[in-house]
Amino acid sequence: MNRRDFLKSAMIGGAALTVPMGLDPILTALVAAEKTDLAVASGTPPDKITRAAIDALGGMKRFVSRGDVVVVKPNIGWDRTPEYAANTNPDVVAAVVRLCLEAGAKTVKVFDHPVSNPRRAYKQSGIADAAAAAGAAVSFIDDRKFKDMQINGHSLKSWPLYTEVFEADKVINVPIAKTHGLSKLTLGMKNWMGVMGGSRGRIHQRVNESIVDLAIFIKPVLTILDAVRILTDNGPQGGNLTDVKQLNMVIAGTDAVAVDAFGATLFGMKPAELGCVRIGHQLKLGSMDLEKMKIKRITV
Amino acid sequence: MLKNIRRLSQAFFLLIFLWLFLLTESRGENELGYPVKVFLEADPLIFITTTLSTRALYTPFLLSLLIIIATAVLGRVFCGWVCPLGTLHNMAGTLKKKSLSKKSYNLYHWKYIILIFLLVSSAFTLQLSGILDPLALLIRSLSLSIYPLFQYATAGVFDAVYAWHLPVITDFSEFIYGMLKKTVLSFHQPYFNQAVFTGLLFLGILALNLLEQRFWCKFLCPLGALLGLFSRYAILNRSVSEGCDGCGVCRRSCQGGAAPDKKDKWLKSECMACMNCDDLCPRNAVRFGFSGKPAGVALDIGKRRVIGSMIAGLIAVPLLRISPLKKAGAAEPRLIRPPGSLDEKAFLQRCIKCGECMKVCITGGLQPTLLEADLEGIWSPVLVPRIGYCEYRCTLCGQVCPTAAIRKLSVEEKASIRIGLAMIDKGRCLPFAHSTPCIVCEEVCPTPKKAIWFEEVRVRNRNDKTVTVKQPHVDLELCVGCGICETKCPVLGLPAITVTSIGESRSKDNQLLLP
After folding, report:
1. What span, in angstroms and rounded, lies between the C-alpha atoms of B71 and A28?
2. Rounded to a whole number, what is the distance in Å from the CA of B415 to chain A's nearest CA?
3. Cβ B490–A236 below 8 Å, yes or no?
4. What Cα–Cα distance (Å) separates residue A234 from each residue in A112, A189, B208?
5. At residue A272, what are phi and psi to the nearest 5 degrees?
6. How confident is the model at residue A26 (pLDDT cuts 50, 70, 90)?
7. Helix extents (H) in B322-419
8. Domains of chain A
9. What is the Cα B237 distance to its own chain's centre?
10. Over the stretch B268-286, which tens digit does the pLDDT of each residue have?
């Protein structure tokens, strides 16, 4: 928690203490939202449930301040159209962009480093067009902006990472929930492969430890897991509509481990079965104990 | 005045040509959406040689009838007013020191010899016209060498300024760079094999203008020769009035070397209708018009030369085809052709080595061959997975191929076409030989049912510890040979999984599995 959040919580907490509960419903809602660990919104359309999930956490103003430069990092890894659930849903990305701008962000940058050809991935996923229409500054990866960063993790000592992520005021992770041959699932923490340069295929040799190192090094203020459609087999690239399951859900949280832990349950897995969740929990990046968390479920 | 209209026309067509060249690039959409191959489809030499070599009419080439008719009526106006390579020759020729000597090369017959050779060999199915056709040569040279060179130099300058991190200057430079990236620069730096060779050849051809203006057009261009033949009975004729005093201004300014000062012995087939003699004649004695009176003489190539050229064209066919690669089943393993390619025999009859497919290939995987497809297939496209793979849902190469050597495919059709098969080298693959997890190949395999499956195996590592690794296997029935596994395999340089052409759908012989 940074100073701004602490002061806000303290002020609200203090104000709430002085006002009897029930006399000020806004303060009540805020206090309740402060305590929500995970927001799980269900329904349609995607941009409405995205908003609902973030509102349940206290609204985007809790995360983005006026004048911020925000990086929204979706999954634009593959040359697939939205119904194949290989990339983040473009409507979810657009909703996040709009929410950031409404909260006063100066610029919202959207980019990813695809595995497929970048022009096709950006176009076919629909994300570049949707994000641009929502007002984001969409850009392709510029190879000059990779810089070796001292991650000093358990697996990765240093790695070339995209500097624009670290020059931003706030970073928001917007992954999609899919299966993955090696790591079983790819959710939020694995999404950080999209800001890696170099020969990143090598991290498969220690995949779970490496992506936890990245998740610790990059500190997103928010993780918004797109589960409008999930890819249940032949991930992370898919290509078969029969592998796609329409869930119409969006999960949001500040704890990256918790979001991934909840994501695992969507595939019928226990959180501890996911290597990165288990390691993230052990390293105290976050918690995988879903039973102990306050999970707010909203249906739209 | 006519001269200036002609120059405007040349500039116009050159700009259109370059604009279409720049548009031969993906924007991420499925369809390219621009008629980038229109110059090649309108090329009569390509039309005639392809029709001869394939014994079939490919309808887009009917566009070339426009040029044939224009030439039959007006003479070699294509050469003088339209051809973008001709315009480049004019531009290069401005660097030549203007000499007033009467010396000039008398090599006009060379291009007819080349033309006859190409016509005869293509009549016997050997299609070599793309090597010397001016439009194919220009597009190939620009795609494989000149444009990559331009990109490299420009990006190099801007990247240097970027690296300096100067306060105002770097921002301004990045702004200009951004504008250039949206207009004339390529998305990625193109890299091509033989770029040095192709570039030097092209610059050498342009440098010939220092010996004689439009050296290529006068002495080497087979399309110019073809149009020269067609222009024999053109009704646009040149007449010289009695006012001519033999000053020779017309001879010095003649772009075709058509001996205009010889009045009635004017070489009609060499005239490119550049109008220089008309404009510059100080006595206003020259006139181009439709008077109906046939003028000038035909070029005498020489009977022996014609026969010699025909024989050469005949001999070339078996000479170029006695290579072991033509033996059934002796497929060159690394000759992975683009998806949609016809079987090799038919492919070589059609491919004009224009380089359009290589220019448009979004991963840069299509490279020019040297001798992998024999001399007959020089500079035809081959997929080199180490450099770039075939993106599963992309169909651009078939969209830009002017002769349908690569058929235009829909995304659905393409999914059922195989261009080769991937196989794993267990001595290099990390999970097999080095007890280390990997399976990047399985992750990037684009086939919907995954042509790479894995087996969980318990192996011992050096410390005698048992580790479980997922070992990949290729499903030979599902693999389409796209090569992304080879491109992304972390064992750089000599990957642990490689694609060869065996199993390619287009070939009857080059098969592995029993159907």
Report:
1. 86
2. 11
3. no
4. 22, 19, 58
5. -70, -15
6. low
7. 344-350, 356-360, 396-400, 411-415
8. 1-35 (no CATH), 37-299 (3.40.50.11440)
9. 35
10. 899 999 999 888 899 888 8
In what helix (H) or strand (E) does residue A137 lie, and over which residues does it extend? strand A137-138
**CA B415, B416, B422 angle in degrees (round to 5)?**
85
Sole residue written with tokens 């040509």: B17
Say if CB B108 and CB B270 are below 8 A apart: yes
Residue showing tokens 């999404």: A191
ipTM of the complex: 0.93
pLDDT in tens, A256-295: 999 999 999 999 999 999 999 999 999 999 999 999 999 9
In chain B the first and final C-alpha atoms are separated, in Å, by 70
Q: SS3 for A10?
A: helix
CA distance A118 to B167: 30
A10, pLDDT greater than 90? no
B1-55 pLDDT tens trace: 888 999 999 999 999 999 999 999 999 999 998 999 999 999 999 999 999 999 9
Whether residues A199 and B392 touch (CB distance < 8 A) is answered with: no
Alpha-carbon gap, residue A129 to B95, rounded angstroms:
48
State how far the Cα of A235 lies from the Cα of B426, in Å rounded to an integer: 24
Residue at token pair 């300024």: B161
The identity of residue B132, as a single letter, is L
Cα separation, B345 vs B28, in Å, equals 33
Name every chain B residue with its beta carbon within 8 A of the beta carbon of A117.
Answer: 26, 362-363, 391, 394
Residue among B26, B443, B448 whose CB faces A182 most closely: B443
Q: Tell me which DSSP letter residue B404 carries.
A: S
Please name the member of B163, B391, B489 whose beta carbon is closest to the beta carbon of A120. Answer: B391
Omega of the bond prior to A236 within 30 degrees of 0, cis?
yes
pLDDT in tens, B373-423: 999 999 999 999 999 999 999 999 999 999 999 999 999 999 999 999 999
Contact B421, B476 (CB under 8 A): yes
pLDDT at B261: 81
Q: How confident is the model at residue A30 (pLDDT cuts 50, 70, 90)?
A: low
Specify whether the CB–CB gap between A117 and B363 falls below 8 A: yes
B316/B116 Cα distance (integer angstroms) = 12
Tell me the torsion sign for CA atoms A187, A190, A195, A197: negative
How crowded is residue B314: how many other Cβ atoms within 10 Å of its Cβ?
16
- For the record, the structure tokens of B179 come out as 């504008």
Strand partners, B238: B288
In percent, the amount of chain B with pLDDT more than 90 equals: 80
- What's the rounded mean pLDDT across residues B219-243? 91
pLDDT at position B134, please? 97
C-beta neighbour count of B512 within 10 angstroms: 10
- pTM comes to 0.92
Give how far A121 is from chain B: nearest CA, Å.
7
Checking if the pLDDT of A95 tops 90, the result is yes
Kindly report the CA angle at B200 between B196 and B202, in degrees rounded to 5? 120
For residue A206 the two structure tokens come to: 């220690």
Q: Which among B28, B392, B488 has the least Cβ separation from residue A119?
A: B28
The DSSP code sequence of A20-60 is -TTT-HHHHHHHHHHH-SEEEEESSSHHHHHHHHHHHTT-G
Nearest to B490 among A181, A182, A202 (CB): A202
Beta-carbon contacts below 8 Å between A and B: 88
Which residues in B have their CB inside 8 Å of a CB on A? 26-29, 159, 162-163, 187, 362-363, 391-394, 430, 436-440, 442-450, 454, 470, 488-490, 492
pLDDT, residue B287, reads: 86
C-alpha to C-alpha distance for B76 and B274, rounded to whole angstroms = 9
Percentage above 70 pLDDT, chain B: 99
